[in-house]
Amino acid sequence: MPVITTIEDLRVLAKKRVPRMFYDYADSGSWTESTYRANSADFQKIKLRQRVAVNMENRSTATQMIGQDVAMPVAIAPTGLTGMQHADGEILGARAAKKFGIPFTLSTMSICSIEDIAQATDRHPFWFQLYVMKDRGFIERLIDRAKAANCSALVLTLDLQILGQRHKDLKNGLSAPPKLTVANILNLMTKPRWCLGMAGTSRWQFGNIVGHVQGVDNMGSLSEWTAKQFDPGLNWGDVEWIKKRWGGKLILKGIQDIEDARLAVDSGADALIVSNHGGRQLDGAESSIRALPQIVDAVGSRIEVHIDGGIRSGQDVLKARALGAKGTYIGRSFLYGLGAMGEEGVTKALQIIHRELDLTMAFCGHTNIATVDKGILLPGTFPT
Length: 384
Description:
By secondary structure, the chain is an alpha/beta fold. The protein is built from 15 helices and ten strands. It has a single domain (7-376), classed as Aldolase class I (TIM Barrel), CATH 3.20.20.70. Helices cover 43% and strands 10% of the residues. Helix 1 (7-17) packs antiparallel against helix 15 (332-363). The longest helix has 32 residues, at 332-363. The termini are far apart.
C-alpha cells in the first residue's frame, strides 16, 4: 500500500481501482473541460500571508453550517452514482462523515436509497439533495421520505434542468444499464477488487427511484423514465413550492450570478451554494472561487453563502473561508478516497483536508476558523 499524504495520492489509487467508465464519470467535465480545470487552478493562484511568532496553541476548526455544528466548514457534496465508485459507497461515505462530525449529502441519483443511509447510520441526521422532476407526485413522496429519514436539510439543485454534454461518458458508453462493450468488459477484468465488492451487494440501481415510481422496476425502465423527467421548466415558483412542502432548512445549489443570488435570498432559502456543478454543465462558466467574492459582497449579510468546485485541500477550504464562504463541499476529493479505499479512504480524505486546514490556518496567524478573513490572503492574488 502506498503512503497516502494528499488527495492526489487518493485520486491516483482510485483511477487504478475503479472501472474506467465510473472513474471518468466522476473525474471529468463538459465539453472542453475548461471550467472543470479552472475550478482547481484558480484556487492555486491565491497566495497566503505567513505570520510568525504568533501563539499557535489551542486551535479549532469547529464552526456551524446552517446552524448545525461541524468539525470543520466542510460537507460531503451530493454525487450521483456514488455506489458505483465502490460497493455501497453512499453508506460508507455517510458513516465516515458521521464519525468525523461533518454533514453528508445524499444525491437523488444515488445507488443506495434514503432509507439505506438512515438505517446504516442509526438515523443520524444527513442532508438530501433534490433534483426537480416533471413527476411532481414523485417529488412530493421523495421529500416526505427525506423527512421520515430524519434529513436535517434539503439541498435543491437548480443548474441541471438539462444535461451538459460530457464527452467521456459518451465514449465510454455510460448509461443505465452501462453498455457492456468489449473495451468495458476488458477494463472490468482489470478491477478485481471492485468486482468482488459489487458481487457482495444487492445495491446496483438508483435506490431512490427504482420501486418508488410506477413501472420503474429495473435499469431499462429507469433509463427511459429519467431521460424524460429532468424538468427544463424549473422556475422560482417551484422553489417556493418545494420550500413550503419541505418546511425545514433549504440550501440552493448552482448559483453563479449576482442576480440569481438575490433571487435565492428572496426565496427564503437558508443558504446558497456558489457552484457550476463541478464544471459538468456550462463549460466556459467562471470558476466557483472567482464567482464567490462578488456574491458574498452582494448577499452575504442576508444569506449563508457556501461553495463547491475544485476543493482538493485544506488550503482551498481556508481560502474559500477567507473570501466569505461559511461552508465548503467536497465531491471529487470524497470520491477519490471512496474509490481508492472505501470508508477508510473517505476518512483519509477528511483527515488530509482537516490537517491541511488546521496547519495552514496556524501558519497564517489564526487559531480559530471564526477569525479567518481576507487578511490571510496576499493582496492582488485573489479575485475581487
